[in-house]
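Contributing: when you submit paired examples, paste them exactly as shown. First protein:
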Amino acid sequence: MADINITRNHTLGKEEAKKRANDMLEKMKDKVGIKGAWAGDIFNVTDPVKGTFAVSDTSIKCELNLSFLMKAMKGTIEQKINESLDKALA
């Protein structure tokens, strides 16, 4: 089970939601150094945490596994992801 599991529903359609998710992830790359790549509608996060951002017609689902040291920052990471998703899907 993922350490962070966030699902955010939307009414944007898959393509628009993916575009906005990509914009959000690009900002996260600049701010926190997140690394990964898209495989279809799933962004596979490889560093500094492991997990996915999966885009569907009606939702974006974030599942992340944190390293032992990152688990101490779980609340902050979760808050930042929620804020970023809220902005991206507004």
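Second protein:
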Amino acid sequence: MTEYVSKSDLTVALNEGFDNVYKKLTNHFDMRFDKLEQDITQINKKYEHLIVTLDTFLKRLDDIEADNSARDAQLARLERWIEQVASKTGVKLEY
């Protein structure tokens, strides 16, 4: 025998089916977005660590350059004094 399904029964069954699919789909997307957010958070942490490390190296380079400039200025001053002393004492400098 053939059974007929009423319109309201069919509507209820379809709504339940769509609700089921919608819940599964939104759950799947939620899991994927949560994973993406975790990945982005890890990338941001690595990026921040990289920036801090780079800043540290750049500060060390700046300090080295400042020390080198001070040393070069002091060396030039010492050479100038040596030449002045040599000139006044009549000592010939050999390079």
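If you have annotations for the second protein, write them as plain sentences, like these:
The chain is about 85% helix and 0% strand.
The longest helix spans residues 7-89.
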